[in-house]
TrEMBL record:
RNA polymerase sigma factor 70 region 4 type domain span: 100-151
Keyword entries, A-Z: DNA-binding, Sigma factor, Transcription, Transcription regulation
Family designation: Belongs to the sigma-70 factor family. ECF subfamily.
MF term (GO), any: sigma factor activity
Residue ranges constituting the RNA polymerase sigma-70 region domain according to the UniProt record: 4-69
Protein name: RNA polymerase sigma factor
One GO BP: DNA-templated transcription initiation
Organism listed in the record: Pseudoalteromonas xiamenensis
Pfam families with a match to the protein in the record: Sigma70_r2 (PF04542), Sigma70_r4_2 (PF08281)
Presence of keyword ATP-binding: no
Database matches in InterPro entries: RNA_pol_sigma-70-like, RNA_pol_sigma-70_dom, RNA_pol_sigma70_r2, RNA_pol_sigma70_r4_t2, RNA_pol_sigma_r2, RNA_pol_sigma_r3/r4-like, WH-like_DNA-bd_sf
Length: 155
């Protein structure tokens, strides 16, 4: 699937930001890929295919988080989260430390703010984010401002 390959990096970053447990992250990745495979024809014919793809990623992730909360999974401690990011050979040390701090801060955001900021970090426009999350354009701007403020306080 061409869109999966084109946006695999963004999807992987979303996985890392939303799931610290490697096994659960792999399950989520498989769930997302299956959902994208099943919706491949609808994605290709969608008015905004990229936004439609991210809506599917968002919906599958929300379902995953809801199931995890029902099962009361506990997130990994900070040391293990740092180790996960340490395994990324393509980042320089400074960038790696900044990424770790940012990812840790993003994980502390509320679910609504985390979803908006993750999509914005993938350079999706506010209208695309509104379409993905099925909220108004104004609500996206408000959430982005709140998320940025919250991130600045956390960092």
């Amino acid at each position: 699937m061409l869109l999966w390959q084109k946006h695999q990096g963004a999807i992987s970053r979303s996985l890392l930001a939303n799931e610290a447990d490697p096994a659960a992250r792999q399950d989520l990745k498989q769930d997302i890929f299956l959902a994208l495979y099943q919706a491949a024809e609808r994605i290709q014919t969608a008015e905004l295919p990229r936004a439609y793809l991210f809506r599917i990623v968002h919906n599958v992730t929300v379902d995953h988080i809801a199931r995890a909360q029902q099962q009361k999974w506990h997130p990994l401690d900070d040391e293990v989260q740092y180790q996960l990011l340490d395994d990324c050979p393509s980042l320089q040390l400074d960038e790696q430390q900044q990424s770790q701090q940012l990812m840790q801060a993003v994980r502390r955001l509320s679910a609504a703010n985390r979803q908006v900021i993750l999509l914005a970090m993938e350079e999706l426009t506010a209208p695309e984010i509104a379409d993905i999350l099925q909220i108004s354009h104004g609500a996206v701007r408000v959430r982005l401002n709140r998320a940025k403020t919250e991130l600045m306080e956390l960092m």
